[in-house]
Amino acid sequence: MEIRLKVAAKINLSLDIIGKLESGYHEIDSVMQSVSVFDYVSLMTTENGIITCDDAATYSPVKRAAEIFFDKSHIAGGVRINIIRTIPVASGMGGSSADASCVLYGLNELYSHPFGDEELRELAVSLGADMSFMLSGGTKRCKGIGEKLSEVKNLTDPFYLGVKARGFITSKGAYEAFDSIAKSCHGDMEKVIGALETGHVENGILYNVLEEPCTSLAPDILNVKEIFSSDRNCRAHFLTGSGPMYVGIYDSFKEASDAMIRFPGREKHIFRNEDRSITVM
After folding, report:
1. Beta carbons of 54 and 43 less than 8 angstroms apart
2. 88: closest CA among 267, 225, 276, 279?
3. Is residue 228 domain-shared with residue 144, that is, in the same domain?
4. Could you tell me which of 52, 76, 88, 149 has the fewest CB atoms within 10 Å of its CB?
């Protein structure tokens, strides 16, 4: 048996850090949004206890997702995993979390739903902070370590231009850099949600408290930000996750497309909102 799925990337329309838990995780408050950049995942059942991955799926979150599914379900099965990636790698758009969540979801489909929705979310949370959101997607406020989800009404329907600044940042490195700043810096999440609910998002509303520490690790983020800031067609701009993908909001595809020429030599994507994360193809 085989199942083919696609899984959407995410952006953080805003990201706040509330504190640090004894577990070492940071407590966050974030509005996450699924967007139309996808990875494509195929899963095929194999002999008992065998988990094989193609080159694109060998990294630990995907393999661990399959292992924990079989371990917790007590199913004597196996899977062959193939992934075609188009979500930018190490960008702050949640590619590895998306793929791992998709594997959990797909295996649950292949093996006749041994887990209910809540149980599947609990498995996802045990694997990573973004994965609970990645199972459902849409627009959600994510609190705790990302596992406490609530719906957010989002009336914005923009064209996003994502520009990956030069440099490499790990999530671990970004949060460590944030901790080293040792200062309190918070935005207004209620203002963010109000703007989304009315569809009126402007500069200065969306925010990411990781922007300053991430810029210290990848200084080109500042260059990208300044270019967006000087574009009168850009309604708002922000860093997503731990970067270095920086996102500008435009009213039309033409405006977003015209802006691409301002960012030579950098990876660029135009995308829209998606109302769900995982789709069976």
Report:
1. no
2. 267
3. no
4. 76
d(CA 53, CA 80): 6
Residues 237 and 166 in one domain: yes
- Residues 213 and 191: beta-carbon distance below 8 Å: no
Q: 3-state class of 260 per DSSP?
A: helix
**What are the residue numbers of the active site?**
10, 130
Instruction: Say how far apart CA 87 and CA 92 lie, in whole Å.
Output: 10
pLDDT digits (tens, 9 = 90+) for 140-181: 999 998 889 999 999 999 999 999 999 999 989 999 999 888
Domain total in the chain = 2
Residues 146 and 90 in one domain: yes
The parent domain of residue 6 ranges over 2-151+276-280
User: Is pLDDT of 184 > 70?
Assistant: no
Query: What are the backbone angles phi and psi of residue 88, rounded to the nearest 5°?
Result: -55, 135
Pairing verdict, β 78-84 and 26-46? antiparallel
The reply to whether 15 and 138 lie within a common domain is yes
